[in-house]
Amino acid sequence: MAAVRRKLIVVANRGPASYERAANGERVARRGGGGLVTALRGLVEPHDVTWIASAISDEDRVVSGENEGRAFDETSREGASFRLRLVAHDPQAYDWFYNVVSNPILWFVQHYLWDLKESPNLDDAFHHSWEEGYGAVNRNFADAVLDELEREPEATVFFHDYHLYLAPRLVREGRPDAALQHFVHIPWPQADYWHVLPLVARRQVHEGILANDAIGFHTPRWRRSFLRCCEDFLGADCDFAVGTVEHEGRTVRVTANPISLDVKEFEELKESEAVLEAERALQPSRPEQLILRVDRTDPSKNVVRGFRAFELLLDEHPELQWRVGMLALLDPSRQDIPEYAEYVGAIQREARRVNDRYARIGWTPIDLRVEDDFAASVAAYKQYDVLLVNAIFDGLNLVAKEAPLVNTRDGVLVLSENAGAHDELGDFAVTVNPFDVAGQANALHEALRMSASERRRRIEGIRARVREHDLAAWLAQELEALPGLSTSRR
Ligand code: F6P
């Protein structure tokens, strides 16, 4: 039977590709970073996609200018064609949008990252950045969407993430009948924590996103919080069982559908030359038992407490010294934001402190590598005995799905109860509270000592879940929630 193709306008801050100039002057397209982009690239092949993203690199801005800000034809690395529209925002507005509002404020709200007696201090910088940065960039995105809808009025618009809470309302005002959907890739915190934001901002966030017809979250936990916020902040009528919000005469559908991965892609990747080479490079320094973590250097990932838990493990079980090591592969992230730059310093200090205490010639307890090296991460996925994912809060955490899929040692997943992935994988993981350092040390010990049959049972359970609910299943479920579908036949 012919596959159903849908006309989609995907709207996300990052595009599937970002342009650069190579040393020889040639323009090259680099795969856009982050889990969201990895997942959404899967949309491009089976559907008619126009992707609207910010022009982030200098070369993106040049490409955008060459196309007069309009969409142009692009081909994915897998050979699928799509249209890409790069929006070149005013650089100052984009800085306020990304480095003042989206990441240090909205990201921090949504991951409960503040020590409230100290921060945040929402001074004038926040207020004008909200309007002239976050608001301005959202207006640019909305204008681009409206322009694309002129061309294809029946297309469905698929917004992504916390960068774009205001755009749906602006599009709805311009096109009351447009089919709009939003997926939120990060947690939705409880109503009280949203009270950190001034009234006007938290109302705009909720009113903005409710202009969609459907809103997706990874888990029922984040969905429940969202519905509760809609009740509290807007007095909206919410049905928690069905997952709907009645707002301004419209019914908005709210779903929980955890994102997943392309199983085939990872199975091919694990045999790729780059990964095999990285695996060979890992071997000489491999301890008898390897504890691994792979993260961005994001405060929500809880790297420092993870090192402390490992230190406690070595304190309490001296017999593990020399035999067990922790490998931390950390991708530097958002380094123009002081909180993020300082967090890298905190990570380095803590690793140094533990290593100074325990290292002996020939054994370094924590092998810390702060670099963007995807092949090395996949190689380490294959090699771990214990995978530590102890996020403070996390929308989902794709590492918890990717790594078990390709692991060759029946490694054990130690998983934060506050990672969205815990909802699906908790039965097969050793659960930790991310603040309980002693509990994490015990969990690491339990994982290191687990019997072979139990390890096998658990990792097979994770794999079965990931295979059953893979990226295609996630996409299919998302698109089912999209109203006003426009389909074409291949
Ligand atoms: O959903 C959160 C997210 O957008 C992920 O897709 C990705 O891992 C990360 O944040 C990327 O952040 P940034 O685009 O700021 O590098």
Q: Could you describe the 3D structure shown?
A:
The protein has 490 residues and is of the alpha/beta class. The protein has two domains: 282 residues, Glycogen Phosphorylase B (Rossmann fold, 3-Layer(aba) Sandwich), CATH 3.40.50; 206 residues, Rossmann fold. It is 45% helix and 20% strand. It is built from 18 helices and 19 strands. Strands 1, 4, 5, 6, 7, 8, 9, 10, 11, 12 and 19 form an eleven-stranded mixed sheet that branches. Helix 15 links the parallel strand 17 and strand 18. Helix 11 packs across helix 16 and helix 13 crosses helix 14. The chain is globular and about 65 Å long. The C terminus is likely disordered. The structure holds 6-O-phosphono-beta-D-fructofuranose (F6P). The site of 6-O-phosphono-beta-D-fructofuranose (F6P) has 11 residues, from helix 1.
> The CATH topology of the largest domain, please?
Rossmann fold
Note the quaternary state here: single chain
Fourth-level CATH superfamily of the largest domain:
Glycogen Phosphorylase B
Radius of gyration: 23 Å
Describe the global form: globular
CATH top level assignment of the largest domain: Alpha Beta
CATH architectural category of the largest domain: 3-Layer(aba) Sandwich
Find the structural class using helix and strand composition: alpha/beta
